């Protein structure tokens, strides 16, 4: 395969990388994200779970949420409290 074909094919690859972390914890967090995801998508954005490590949930903002001036407020005033409420093991939220 030529380099250009690989480049073009990878640009259309819609596979989502696997989340790093304990599968049971990932399911718990994904459940919370599923509840809040419509809020993100209503403003042409989204949120992706990247990993869970040492009690910290790592997420990545996508779409319009990446550049939104209110994203910190949304993450740390809406998402993090909900995660702590539903998942007693959560120590914090990290975005990047």
Walk me through the topology.
Elements: H1 3-11, H2 23-41, E1 45-53, E2 56-63, H3 71-86, E3 92-95
Parallel strand pairs: 2-3
Antiparallel strand pairs: 1-2
Helix pairs in contact: 2-3
Extended strand count? 3
Oligomer: single chain
Written as H for each helix and E for each strand, in order along the chain, the element string is HHEEHE
Number of helices: 3
Q: What is the CA-CA span between the terminal residues?
A: 33 Å
Strand content bin: 15-25%
State the shape: globular
* Rounded radius of gyration (Å): 15 Å
The strands making up the biggest β-sheet line up spatially as: 1-2-3
Structural class: alpha+beta
Low-confidence stretches: none
Describe the protein in words.
The chain has 3 helices and 3 strands. By secondary structure, it is an alpha+beta fold. The protein has a 3-stranded mixed sheet with strand order 1-2-3. The radius of gyration is 15 Å and the shape is globular. It starts with a helix and ends with a strand. 11% of the residues are buried. The model has no long low-confidence stretch (mean pLDDT 86).
In short:
The protein is of the alpha+beta class and 96 residues long. It contains three helices and three strands, in the order ααββαβ. A three-stranded mixed β-sheet has the order 1-2-3.
Short key terms for the protein model shown above:
single chain, alpha+beta, 96 residues, 3 helices, globular, three-stranded mixed sheet
């Amino acid at each position: 395969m030529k380099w250009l074909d690989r480049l073009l094919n990878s640009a259309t690859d819609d596979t989502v990388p696997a989340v790093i972390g304990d599968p049971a914890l990932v399911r718990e967090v994904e459940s919370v994200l599923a509840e809040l995801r419509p809020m993100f998508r209503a403003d042409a954005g989204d949120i992706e779970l990247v990993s869970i490590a040492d009690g910290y949930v790592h997420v990545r903002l996508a779409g319009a949420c990446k550049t939104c001036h209110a994203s910190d407020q949304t993450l740390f005033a809406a998402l993090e409290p909900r995660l702590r409420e539903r998942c007693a093991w959560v120590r914090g939220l990290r975005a990047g």
